[in-house]
Amino acid sequence: MADRSLAIRRMLPAGTGRGRRIRNSIWGVLGSARGAPSPSSIMGAVKAKGCQPVKKSEKLLRFTLDDGTGTDRQILSGIAKWYKPEELVGKTLMAIVNLPPRKMMGQESQGMLISAVHTEKGEEALNLLILDDKIPAGAKMC
Length: 142
Description:
By secondary structure, the chain is an alpha+beta fold. It has helices at residues 2-11, 17-31, 85-88, and strands at residues 43-53, 61-66, 72-77, 92-96, 102-104, 107-109, 112-113, 115-120, 123-128, 130-131.
């Protein structure tokens, strides 16, 4: 448990209230009883097979992902402000793949994409964690 907390602290900006809030919210997801995954299978590499904006939403993008299981996975992510869907198709991303499904805008999201949030020129900025394409879908992060 302490190792996960330390790793999350190192990934997020130190010294800002926002960093602490983000760290706490990620820890809430990772450590909650609702999504209590085992430490060895929390995060995995996924390949974006498709990405479209969600109708009636300015924030959400709907991803069709290859998670290495042979069955497509759908994840909705509120990153439309920062990314165009066509830029993400074919990319290798990092996702939490063993969270319980959650409804968003009437559609099921089967995980969470990992990104870093920070302030840039006084504005909130977001960077999706995009991995090397050599990493196969389904690879576990450690």
